[in-house]
Sequence to fold (113 residues):
Amino acid sequence: MWAQDGREDLAPTYEFVFGGWLNKKCALRKRGVQVCSARAAPLNSASFVSLWIYVADGVLACGVGDVHSGTLIRWRDEAFEPRAHFVGFSTWNAPAVLRNIEVRTTAYANPGP
Fold:
């Protein structure tokens, strides 16, 4: 089945959740199934927070601050699905302001295994 944007509804998806569960947890989901999580409260309603996501060669990571610093989650997917080409944002029912969104096609140096 195809969605209106041209992607398959069953296409490979990875979902990074920052500050879920009332800003008490961050999680990574693959096709809707949680594969990794961490207790963290990265969001701040009083100021903007820099968040990053890294996906390359089967390694998926996210954190706060500069890329590869303040890592909250790091997970290696042994069955990595590189066909995931879409980026989306959702805040469910919570108001949010997103700014300075940058998607790079060149990989950052990957520190460690």
